[in-house]
Structure formats: C-alpha cells, structure tokens
Design a protein that fits this description.
Length: about 260
C-alpha cells in the first residue's frame, strides 16, 4: 500500500494515515489487551505499546524521520543542573523543522485515533500540548555513549514512537522510576533511585510507549558500538496541565523550542 506524504493533514481531518491507525488499533488495542495496558499504566506509570505502528506506515515514517535528521539534525551534548547534572548526548530536530518537512509525524500527533487510544490507556482525556515546541521532536542516539540521561518532563504525558532501536545488549533501552517527583530547585536523582524500583524496557522498531513523565523519572541507557536509536517524542497535556504555568527549559535547549 502506498502512503502519500505530500500534504500535511489538518488536525481532525480524514487521511490515509488516520484510516490505517484506526483500523490497526481496532484490531490490536481493544478488549482484554486494552484492559491489560490500562492496569499496567496505573501500576507502573509507563506502558509499552508493542506493535503500535501500522505496518504500512512504519517504513514511510522511518524514511521521513531519517531524511529530516540527516538534513537538519543538530548534535547536542549537555549536562543539566535542573536534573541533577544528568547528561544529554544525542542528535535532535525540533518541532518547527518537523512541521515543515514531516507530514506523517504531524499527522500522527494530530490523529484522533492516536489521541483516543492514549486517553483510554492513561484513564483521562489527553490534550494537545499548549506549547507547540513540545508537540513532536526527533532524537537519535548514533554514537557510542549517546544517552538521554535521567530526567522528568514538564507536562504529564509523553508518548514515544520508536523508529529504530538497537538490540538491548547494545543499550538504548528505557529505564523508568515511577512515583517520584521533580523539584527543579533541588533535583535529587539518586534519592529517587533509592526510593523506588527501577524498571527497564526494551523496544523494537514500530513499538511505542506512553509514560507519566512528571512523576516518572526516566532515561535511555547509553548505547555502545556501531548502532543507533531513533525516536519521535510527542508531548500530551492533562486537564490539570492546562490550568497551570509550565516552563520548557530543557526542551528549548535540546530541541530549539518554537524557534523564537
């Protein structure tokens, strides 16, 4: 099946990607399967969505993200005091570039089927992030030692679509520490590690995961050797998020924010 990527679908309009998402989710994420995801998310605040991506969309999404990354990716290497000095070493592309060059990624974020599935999994309606710079970003770990170190996020929900993933023996798997909190004035990563269980999750291309990022400290284990990991990170807001003032320090540094 050929998927066109020429026109960027407007939010809420029908599109070939939307049809594929709706049909795929109806076959894969209903009934007992959905109930299991809901229970796991309530317990662990992170849940894998195995085989999230419709098979017909995986290669086009991979190609789109790779093209954007190869043309516009920026190498980043920071440590953030706001997350207790944890490292970020990766290549990134921010929302403004993706909006211009990534119609399939844009369509995925604004897909009603995706929004509905995520809302069902987390147990409340999720909302488009009010800060456009957080809608979607791409990151690639492509050099030995690249990592997205321990951190929390500003908005409640993160949704990560895995487009390329190494074998877990080469790192690149996700680790999460639920039921923790981020004090930006006094971040304490090691305290969080001591207070709660660390869970680890390996993923394959086409998988995704949703995480309650404001209360789940998480990281991507450093990769090693000749391998790479490419993901699209999409941010969703809870109803409570829409009522409070939120800053975007790490997003703006790593991904360029909205380019202002």
């Amino acid at each position: 099946m050929t998927v066109t990527t020429q026109a960027i679908p407007e939010p809420g309009t029908a599109s070939e990607p939307e049809r594929l998402f709706a049909e795929h989710f109806a076959a894969r994420f209903t009934g007992e399967a959905l109930a299991g995801l809901q229970e796991k998310f309530r317990s662990e605040h992170i849940v894998p969505l195995r085989g999230f991506c419709p098979p017909e969309l995986l290669a086009p999404l991979q190609d789109e993200a790779a093209g954007i990354m190869d043309e516009h990716g920026v190498d980043r290497k920071f440590s953030f005091d706001i997350t207790d000095g944890t490292p970020r070493q990766m290549t990134t592309v921010g929302q403004p570039v993706i909006k211009e060059h990534g119609p399939l990624i844009h369509a995925t974020y604004f897909s009603p089927a995706v929004k509905d599935l995520l809302s069902r999994v987390v147990g409340e309606e999720v909302h488009t992030c009010p800060y456009a710079g957080e809608h979607y970003v791409i990151s690639r770990l492509g050099k030995s030692g690249d990592t997205h170190g321990w951190h929390w996020d500003d908005y409640t929900y993160g949704f990560i679509l895995v487009l390329r993933a190494p074998d877990y023996r080469d790192g690149g798997f996700v680790q999460a520490v639920p039921h923790t909190s981020w004090d930006k004035e006094n971040p304490d990563v090691h305290g969080a590690l001591l207070k709660s269980q660390v869970r680890s999750y390996a993923f394959e291309a086409g998988d995704a995961y949703v995480v309650k990022t404001d209360t789940t400290m998480h990281r991507v284990y450093p990769i090693r050797g000749e391998t790479s990991r490419t993901i699209v990170n999409m941010t969703w807001a809870s109803g409570a998020d829409l009522q409070r003032e939120i800053t975007h320090e790490t997003n703006d540094v790593l991904f360029g924010g909205v380019g202002v």
